[in-house]
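idk why but the lab printer keeps eating my pages so im just putting this in chat instead. protein + magnesium ion:
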Amino acid sequence: MEPLVVVDHVNKHFGELHVLKDITTTVHKGEVVVVIGPSGSGKSTLCRAINRLETIDNGTITIDGKKLPEEGKELAKLRADVGMVFQSFNLFAHKTVLENVTLGQINVRKRSKADATKRAMELLERVGVANQASKMPSQLSGGQQQRVAIARALAMDPKVMLFDEPTSALDPEMINEVLDVMVGLAEEGMTMVVVTHEMGFARKAGQRILFMAEGEIVEEATPEEFFTNPKSPRAQDFLSKIL
Ligand code: ADP
Ligand code: MG
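predcted complex ->
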């Protein structure tokens, strides 16, 4: 398997707090890695570091063989290779749904408006919200907004998609409409890193589980191994609370 995201001995502090402790892991092309762990364990910081939304103290992160640049145009391009979907949908509030999905394509990928619109409509269709294209984000339900956020990220033709608790802010009845889109992506071979508490999704779509606690990767296993036979006491304790 070809490595796509390589995280090598990465450390990160917030002041005195050591939030990423010597993190090393590789996400391969087409792999779906599910990151789970208690609140505050560093899951979001790891995602944000992969997308360079956070700096790191030391270590390296490479995306498809390229080291993350510090800033500038190269960073914008590399960031476009890494699609990110957040818990809070983060759509541009003053742009229509369609504009949300075309802007990055036009500005970063340098597509014509017509090409960007065509691609956006295909993706909105695919996530089931094409009929909302001319609306403002606030007119959509949470589940619809999150699906637009996924379409927006996909429109950049990312090499990897990072999802940071994409369903945590949703009403229960909307969780599955978002998870279904994610399962579809996984089945099509998209490389994905997914932070989630949805254990059904982890079992169904995950190929590898990373269990984080207190800034460390404590356990790395297949979903089958992890859920039936967690090795570390911390994973056992975590699972006993959520399952
Ligand atoms: P998780 O996503 O697993 O809940 P986070 O990566 O959000 O964990 O946070 C890890 C730790 O870092 C937590 O203790 C959190 O309070 C702290 N933290 C996160 N972001 C910041 C920040 N910008 N400044 C200071 N501390 C932060
Ligand atoms: Mg988090």
